[in-house]
Amino acid sequence: MIFILIFCGFVASGVLGWFVFSKERTALISPLSVSREKPLEKYSILRLSQRQFVPSAIGFGEATATTSAYTVFPFFYMSDGKKVTGVAHIPISTDPTKKFPVIVQLRGYVDQKIYTPGMGTAHSAQVYATNGFISLAPDFLGYGSSDMPSSSSIEERFESYTTTLQLLASVGTLKYADPARVGLWGHSNGGQIALTVLTILGERAVPTVVWAPVTKPFPYNILYYTDEFDDRGKALRKVVADFEADYDADLYSMAQYLDRIAVPLQLHQGIADEAVPVAWSDAFVATLKDKKKDITYFTYAGADHNLAGGNAWNSAMQRDIRFFLSAWQK
User: Fold this and answer.
1) What is the per-residue DSSP string for 156-207?
2) Does residue 171 contact residue 206 with C-beta atoms inside 8 Å?
3) Fewer CB atoms near the end CB (10 Å): N or C, the chain?
4) How far apart are the C-alpha atoms of 192 and 310, rounded to whole Å?
């Protein structure tokens, strides 16, 4: 009996020793065998395409202007724990049950020192609202009364995609918005954001109009404009170089994922545009047509980056309204 107890004790000790050794061995190996995700990997096109954005309630402040056709309100919503503000143009109706189509409008680059809410979108928003569309134009993080963006200028750029995706996901929280009729509009860098969002959403995307969009691949599309900076882009080139040392830039460039675009597109380009070369839009449209994408292209002789010159601006707006109404019927 004593022998049996001693034998069982040896067995138990052996099992316990093996268990402890196994746990210690796992603890020593696991940090080396498990790769840690880099902070910006979550912003790659394909990673964002897998993300589900939970709708955020859109809130409104006091009206800032009213016409016979629409009312202008400041609005806000939450995106990844940060408040994003913007300007809304809401059509006026005597029918409280009426639901309006929605255009999310993305402006081009504006220096924070001179920015005011609605800059770059207010004029077109007035036309949309007069014609019975809700316009929602976000300020983006760091602008208006929005919270500050990431301290990383590269991540700040990626946050413009997530705040746009969050706003699109939140349109349905407005009781007078028709979630089945939502469109996207972008000008210049806002056009680049809009096109990137389309590649992220794929089949879930909405009909989109872009004016003079920045269509060159990331990060060239930002380096191209560095001659406008005080340091001629020295600091930004360092930021980009550091990013590319750790990440594959192609994974963040919409130009690499144009096959994922699955909605009708309309593009307007001024021939006299000095900010976005006409050749960029020509090449972009040719690429999409080669891929059998549904894109309509208009050019305007004498028109600049804002489609000022002749009747270009009015023509573009009329074409946009017809485009969205037609696209929603398909």
Assistant:
1) HHHHHHHHHHHHHHHGGGSTTEEEEEEEEEEETHHHHHHHHHHHHHGGG---
2) no
3) N
4) 26
- Helical ranges in 82-181 per DSSP H: 122-130, 153-170
Q: Is 150 left (phi over 0), alpha (psi -120 to 50) or beta?
A: beta
Q: Are residues 125 and 10 in the same domain?
A: no
> pLDDT for 77-89, tens place per residue?
999 999 999 999 9
CA dist., res. 207 & res. 209, Å (int): 7
Average per-residue pLDDT in the chain?
A: 91
Tell me the pTM.
0.88
Do 81 and 19 lie in one domain? The reply is no
Range of the domain at 30: 1-34
The answer to whether the CB of 134 falls within 8 A of the CB of 88 is yes
CATH code for position 114 = 3.40.50.1820
- The reported pLDDT for the residue numbered 231 is 81
